[in-house]
Amino acid sequence: MTDAERLALIRDVLGGIAPEAADAEIAGDADLRETLDLDSMDFMNVVIGLHERTGVDIPEADYSELFTLDGAMAYLAAKGA
Amino acid sequence: MSDTAPMTYREACRQALIEAMEADPRVFMMGEDIGAYGGCYAVTKGLLDMFGPERIRDTPLAESGFTGAGIGAAMVGMRPIVEIMTVNFSLLALDQIINNAATIPHMSGGQFAVPLVIRMATGGGRRVAAQHSHSLEGWYAHIPGIRILAPATIEDARHMLKPALADPNPVLIFEHVMLYNDTEPFDASVNAVDIATAAVRRAGADVSLVTYGGSLKKCLAAAETLAEDGVDAEVIDLRVLRPLDDATILGSVRKTRRCVIVDEGWRTGSLSAEIGMRIAETAFFDLDAPLRRVCSAEVPIPYAPAMEDAALPQPATIVATVRELMGRG
Amino acid sequence: MRDFKMPALGADMEAGLLAEWLVKPGDKVKSGDIVCVVETQKGAIEVEIFENGVIEELVVQPGEEVPVGATLARLDGEAAKEEGAAPAPKRPSLPKWPPPPLPAKAAPPAPRHPPAPAAAAPPAGGRAAVSPAARRRATELGLDPETLTGTGIDGSVTLADVEAAAREPGEKRPAEAPAAEAPPAKPARKGFDPAEMRKAIAAAMQRSKREIPHYYLGQTIDFAAATEWLAATNATKPPPERLMPAALLLKATALAIAEVPALNGHYEDGAFRPGSGINIGWIVALRGGGLVAPAIRDADKQGVRDLMAALRDLVQRARTGGLRASELGSGTVTVTSLGERGADSVIGVIYPPQVAIVGFGRIAVRPWVVDGAVVARPLAEASLAADHRVCDGHLGGLLLAAIDRHLQQPGKL
Hints:
heterotrimer; A: mainly alpha; Non-ribosomal Peptide Synthetase Peptidyl Carrier Protein, Chain A; 4 helices; B: alpha/beta; Rossmann fold; 2 domains; seven-stranded mixed β-sheet; five-stranded mixed β-sheet; 20% strand
């Protein structure tokens, strides 16, 4: 998966939870939970969405690596997705 | 075995008076034709000979005067029993009863009690026309400060007088004219009744017939007819029209979930309206059918026998009303 | 011929806009099927039907706004009504299910009395005549009395008619909504109108603050055991099967409510009526403002994994306008949990006619004294707002203590 594909995938998952995310300008280092007003349930659904689309397990201890777009892309890349 | 010899309602009233006169020298009677004539309905027959003219006092045709005299006597310690020939004539004494008897204990801050008993006949059916046939006890039941009794049985006629005399406030006793000649077995072992509660005269499961006085026997007759149809009616005898025994009325209605109030008074602004409203206020969610009433037709009670019978509540109208309520109309 | 009517989706709803039909004339429907979508102040709500039959006519067309109780569609008169249908959504305030079925009788029951004569006076306003006693009993049994044949005066439905309907053979619990079924493809729905939802919230909360004498209690709960247990159990599960603290809060509250039933139910007409099950209204904040409190039925009887699945499903549907009529207004007590980005504590406003709301602030690591030493512990503030007309603080304290106790044994939830 290329970086562009990963970004598209992450934005698609986010858009399923926060519809405005599809078009929003989101800085790579911005906390997605703040920017998109994601609560714990939303964030859990982000994790589940990424897991289902990529097969990456994402243990709870790693959740904090997904708080930003840059972090999420790096995490998925590191896990081979 | 208790003694249950038959007795008439008239005799029960008479024995109650004799007992009261013998028991307490402060008791005396006043009224029109109660002495020499023996009473319009012969309730006081023989009492003049027994107790003399000082205690059995014939009065002029002046209800306001002798009722007022009774109030004054009660205030100074006597125990007068005033007889008014019929409730229709008591209207001449309304001011004494309502403005004086009912209010003096309150307005004097309790300094004066008014231990007065007023007996009067009420109701229709004797072919004596409108000025002698109305049922106005419901009006009196509107008034705070007086207790209203309606003995419907021989036992109540015999025993309600004693607690009425013991009450420090005025008590009005309404005797239905069609009851005086009734004869029933009288249980001599019973020697007291209360003047606070209603009585279940017939237990039933399907509908409550709430009534009093002269309509009780009509309701009991209707209940027997209804039983042949498989409708099990409960009959409540109010006994005390003021204060009403809400607990017994509501307990019955909560059990049967249907209620027909049978009241010889006119429907409009009647005691039956008061009872129905209390049920609606308190037991609405227990009801399984609308409340119904059987009352007198809204006319001065007619003189012609067929018309008088048609104007008054009758067992057949009670039966028809209940059948309709049960969805069997 | 029976009528399918616009339900009241909450005590304050007066009218609803029919957004779309999911059935057409000739379609067979069974109890529990979602047949249409209604736009309300709370957004688009999927409305179930609680009868079996065939749709004969769609009376109201999409885009029409009609008052509560108006006929939306007619069903054929042939198909048997499902016995013991779920409570009509029209009166969702007292959710109760019928009792277990009695042994079936050999022969189908004959009506006790012939049907009411045609001359029976139609009740005012087109409503079926139902006696007050029958209506109360039907509510207790979860029956819609207006669907029964009346044998009373003027064809009215009496207590005996309701009892007879409850005794009829074949009665069964209404089917739970088939959660696993793939949802039919739906056209896009109009989102809720934030201004309308604000009005609905304002009405409910004004009524609450005007009528309910609230009392408030708070208690700090040590979440160490729950946090450790969650971490351990989630470590072995893939993301979709992981639990969130919310599931534990929900279950612990449900179990505690079962111990203090005086806080579970509705206060109406001057009297408290206990709920027949523990149906927890779970507050879901909507993106862009507004909130709904759909109910999770019998939460005390479900496992935490089922509750977690139910929560995810509810939150998802609440935010996409897919809540069902039976989920609205049927709660017997409310829980609000602020989640990990929320404030430290919340003091709730009771959702009338309920009598209690339990709140949980975020779980955060704070100093806590354990065995005489100050240590860092994950803690959360639990709160209770309850109705003083129904109970006092002592009872409320028992509830919070029970929640605490259950959360100390997360493995047993």
